Amino acid sequence: MIYKTIFKLIFPVALGVGGVIALYLYLDESTWMKLWPLMTAYFFPPLGKESVIPAGIAMGLHPALIALSIAFMDMVASLFVVWNYDFIKKIPFLGKYVEKIENLGKRGSKRYRWVRALGFIGVILFVMIPFQGSGGVVGSILGRLIGLRACATWLAVSSGAILGCMLLAYFANFIKMIIVKNLILGIFVVVLMVLIFLLYKVAKETFKGGDLLQSKARER
Q1: Domain spans in the chain, listed from the N-terminal domain onward
Q2: Which of 44-53, 121-130, 183-192 has the lowest mean pLDDT?
């Protein structure tokens, strides 16, 4: 039993390190020097795939390379979470983060309620969404919270990560091609996307405020 626990702790880390080493050995120096800072930045909020992947495309990385590299990180993180969920809850910083997501889900927060309703497909769609807080770690926590088994949760997160990252990468590449061919049209598309993102943020904060008011009303 102890060997199985140790394996579950070590294997995801070894897999992640092995994947990074494989990229280092396979890629030319110029490509590697562009890729590794982006993979490192993905670990630190508020940067997410919605910013890291377009940055990689702007730097000239192939869409499939940056997409699959970021998706791989989500897959490894998800594997570690689903295999070591109870252990992670004991880690000071990560444990509080897990509890925060659990509490939001248990209170029926609008942000996560639809994931519970859709189950496996909901987790896939959640991880696909290219906004902050929709990555492999949170997706794995939600999968656990809604009752999915570890294997099903990992498959859902992996599918969502690959699909979401690939769609985002090729969309960013498409925008880049538009800008190269027609600068004015490209700028217009970028401005439109920024406006849509800002509207999303406003709507998100509005719903969050509504949830907070409802929670206070229940407490009274």
Answers
A1: 2-172, 182-220
A2: 183-192
